[in-house]
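Key result, reporting period 2: structure in, sequence out.
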């Protein structure tokens, strides 16, 4: 079955960086668009970034050049490099493909 496992979250100071990973299994990774979403308690999930099977990328308006989404088809893995982090980036970050979601990884930006 499809499995998506996120990692790389943690506590970081404002202005810092984190790299999230989403390791996948159970489907032909190279054929599918992959997406990142985030969610804070009490709000719906917000689109962060996506990358298609042909490596086209798209970002949420709030990203403003701070994040880079990538994929490694040899490792069935999608990554999200997050730079210049702000307190408002604090959220649980999820990867998704089709209707399948991972369990998320918590990112906390605080001094």
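The corresponding designed sequence is given below.
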């Amino acid at each position: 079955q499809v499995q998506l496992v996120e990692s790389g979250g943690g506590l970081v100071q404002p202005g810092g960086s984190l790299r999230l990973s989403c390791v996948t299994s159970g489907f032909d990774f190279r054929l599918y668009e992959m997406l990142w979403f985030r969610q804070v308690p009490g709000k719906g999930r917000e689109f962060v970034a996506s990358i298609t099977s042909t490596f086209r990328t798209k970002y949420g308006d709030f990203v403003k050049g701070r994040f880079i989404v990538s994929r490694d088809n040899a490792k069935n893995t999608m990554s999200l490099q997050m730079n210049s982090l702000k307190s408002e980036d604090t959220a649980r970050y999820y990867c998704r493909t089709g209707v399948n979601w991972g369990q998320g990884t918590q990112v906390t930006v605080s001094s």
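The radius of gyration is 13 Å. The CA atoms of residues 18 and 82 lie 5 Å apart. This case is discussed further under Risks and Mitigation.
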